[in-house]
Design goal:
This protein is α/β, with parallel strands linked by helices and about 280 residues long. It contains eleven helices and seven strands. Helix 4 crosses helix 5. A five-stranded parallel sheet has the order 2-3-1-4-6, with helices on both faces. The protein has a two-stranded parallel sheet with strand order 5-7.
């Protein structure tokens, strides 16, 4: 049976590039963001909303919530079986899907309020023996800026970025860092409930290079058990996209933000982010 390789992470954490790189192997099919709401994406057979429309009717809202676990599990199982069937029809040994944290709420909400595992993740692990790749980005200051830029200027990737001067809201940034740390920590615990040989965890800043294949040797080493199981040669994990690891943005009020975080709970994280983001010279 065609296997599922799920790349999991936050927005702006490199899940798309990593998923594309892994699906560059000859025996793979790339399904991408299967919960994407974009009209073009929704026209694909592998898209959740397309599948739901054919089976149950169109969804008015991105979220289709179930009040009981069994119903949600049956729903997830049917959708994942649909994806596997598409992969088998394409003679693929495995399919690659891109799952960002928010999509786990598309099936049900309750898991976010406690320690319950999302039904989608549970179904991937327990019923489909899926491979899980969790990627975490440490520089949360740049993640916050990147998301703010994407929302304000509709610039989604650094490749097409222009230098933008912006002011940060220190309270919004602090709340974002706290929430991001909590969510990524929770997902780290959840994915590791799967057998260790089917789980890999990567750090964004250690996984990409600005030349060559775009994927670092460190990342390939961490992925080696999964690559071996799926019969993927490390040389096949490549991408033409080079991730820029340094921000191209100019934070106009960087001194004010630095003063706010100085000596606080996130001081070390902020300092390392600012230094890595090449803002440090603006603090002098």
């Amino acid at each position: 049976m065609t296997k599922i390789l799920a790349v999991i992470g936050s927005q702006r954490a490199g899940t798309t590039v990593l998923a594309r790189a892994l699906s560059s192997a000859a025996n793979a099919s790339y399904f991408g963001e299967i919960f994407h709401c974009d009209p073009i994406e929704r026209s694909k057979k592998s898209n959740y909303f397309s599948w739901h429309g054919e089976c149950f009717g169109k969804i008015k809202s991105p979220s289709h919530l179930f009040t009981d676990y069994k119903s949600a599990e049956r729903h997830c199982k049917a959708f994942l079986q649909h994806l596997v069937a598409i992969g088998e029809a394409a003679h693929s040994d495995f399919i690659v899907i891109d799952l960002k944290y928010p999509v786990f709420n598309f099936i049900e909400w309750p898991w976010t309020e406690g320690h319950q595992r999302p039904t989608l993740l549970h179904t991937l692990i327990e019923l489909f023996d899926s491979y899980l790749l969790h990627i975490v980005r440490r520089n949360l200051v740049d993640v916050f800026i990147s998301r703010m830029r994407a929302e304000q200027f509709q610039i989604w990737h650094l490749d097409d970025a222009r230098t933008i001067s912006c002011n940060l809201d220190k309270h919004q940034l602090e709340d974002f860092i706290a929430m991001s740390l909590e969510v990524s920590s929770r997902f780290s615990r959840l994915v590791h409930r799967a057998p260790h040989e089917r789980v890999a965890e990567l750090i964004y800043e250690e996984s990409f290079v600005s030349f060559g294949s775009g994927i670092s040797d460190t990342a390939k080493d961490s992925l080696s058990p999964i690559l071996e199981s799926l019969r993927i040669s490390p040389s096949d994990v490549r991408t033409t996209i080079s991730k820029s690891l340094r921000s191209k943005l100019n934070v106009a009020n960087i001194k004010e933000i630095h003063a706010h975080f100085f000596g606080g709970e996130f001081d070390d994280l902020f300092r390392s982010s600012v230094y890595f983001g090449d803002y440090w010279h603006n603090l002098s």
